[in-house]
UniProtKB/TrEMBL annotation:
Lineage: Bacteria, Bacillati, Actinomycetota, Actinomycetes, Kineosporiales
Name listed for the protein in its UniProt record: LacI family transcriptional regulator
Keyword terms of this UniProt record: DNA-binding, Transcription, Transcription regulation
Protein's organism: Kineococcus rhizosphaerae
Domain called HTH lacI-type: residue spans: 11-65
Pfam families linked to this entry: LacI, Peripla_BP_3
Length: 347
């Protein structure tokens, strides 16, 4: 008798492949009556599926007829940034936890800009290589959104501004909020005695940067009577260091800086002596995502925690809803949660 999936969870195609000793592709061929496996192997796979108690999910049944069995993600980012930035590995891990359970593959392409991403997406859809796509890092005026609307490509959009992007039909949207996260950070930093703050943002072409800019302006103006300065960077370690030097060169430099990602904050911690900063103590550092970089740094870096794996899983589930025809309201992501560590605590 085949061994059932662990913890009483619903058996997946991956479980069947493991027990039957075949690939996931072979399982898909066998269970969907497609060529590609021998009749003996097909019978063995089906027997294993029965023993495990496998039943096709609603999403898998809806996708089984003449579909590609794949979801597309075209990242429009500099590959050099991906060498440093842990965000995307975590986001993709979240996507895979959902897609793999449904027997769907992730088709990934990294391109230098959104125009290249548009060409990739158009090609995938024209060749029927994907059943839908996930868009992330949306621009303020994003041609990818226009493309999926024009062609009717099923799509999950990650990180829109409030309700300015359409939902329903072939689109689903994840909305993020920022005000409470910045409120908690500013309160903590003031409690530690900091009255001059700064922020190093990501590129302002992104919707999520503009959303954070609005929240930062509102929160710091309410707390200090004036907006605290922001310097734009590109999320890289070198960009974060250059932006920090620009803040420190001001006549009244900040004594605490909030960074929009972890790489830039970790770079400042690593180079604090060269920058002439005493951390912890006189200068405070707060990072934007709470990856493992924050916990491994010395001192450990305070951060605005976000569950990026859960964000990826949420995007995948939204797309599956679109693919099976379930109407989807805008999904509100969990707000980032402030976690205080040594880098922002006076000693």
């Amino acid at each position: 008798m085949a061994r059932a999936a662990q913890h009483g969870s619903r058996p997946t195609i991956r479980d069947i492949a493991r027990v039957a000793g075949v690939s996931k592709a072979s399982v898909s061929y066998a269970l969907n009556d497609r060529p590609g496996v021998s009749e003996q192997t097909r019978a063995r796979i089906r027997a294993t599926a029965t023993d495990l108690g496998w039943r096709p999910s609603a999403a898998a049944r809806s996708l089984s007829n003449a579909r590609a069995g794949a979801v597309g993600l075209a990242l429009a980012r500099d590959v050099r940034l991906l060498e440093e930035e842990p965000y995307y590995v975590r986001f993709i891990a979240g996507l895979e936890t959902v897609l793999a359970a449904e027997g769907l593959s992730l088709l990934l392409s990294v391109v230098p800009d959104v125009d290249a991403a548009v060409r990739v997406l158009r090609g995938w859809w024209g060749e029927r290589r994907v059943d839908g796509v996930i868009l992330t890092d949306l621009l303020a005026d994003d041609p990818r959104v226009d493309l999926v609307a024009e062609l009717g490509i099923p799509c999950a959009l990650r990180g829109g501004i409030d309700d300015r992007l359409p939902t329903g039909g072939h689109l689903a949207l994840t909305v993020e909020t920022e005000r409470q996260a910045f409120t908690d950070v500013v309160r903590h930093l003031r409690e530690q005695g900091h009255e001059r703050l700064g922020r190093v943002s990501g590129p302002r072409q992104f919707q999520h940067t503009r959303r954070r800019d609005v929240a930062w302006e509102e929160v710091t103006r309410a707390a200090f009577g004036r907006v605290q300065p922001v310097v734009e960077a590109d999320y890289s370690s070198s960009g974060g260091l250059a932006a920090t030097r620009a803040l420190l060169a001001a006549p009244q430099p900040p004594t605490a800086v909030v960074y929009d990602n972890d790489v830039m904050a970790a770079a400042v911690i690593a180079e604090r002596e060269e920058l002439g900063l005493r951390v912890p103590g006189e200068f405070a550092v707060v990072a934007g995502e709470d990856s493992v970089l924050c916990r491994l740094a010395s001192p450990a870096i305070s951060s605005l925690h976000r569950d990026v794996v859960a964000d990826g899983a949420r995007s995948a589930r939204l797309l599956l809803d679109v693919l099976v025809g379930r109407a989807s309201e805008a999904s509100v992501a969990e707000p980032r949660r402030f976690v205080a560590r040594a880098s922002s605590t006076r000693v």
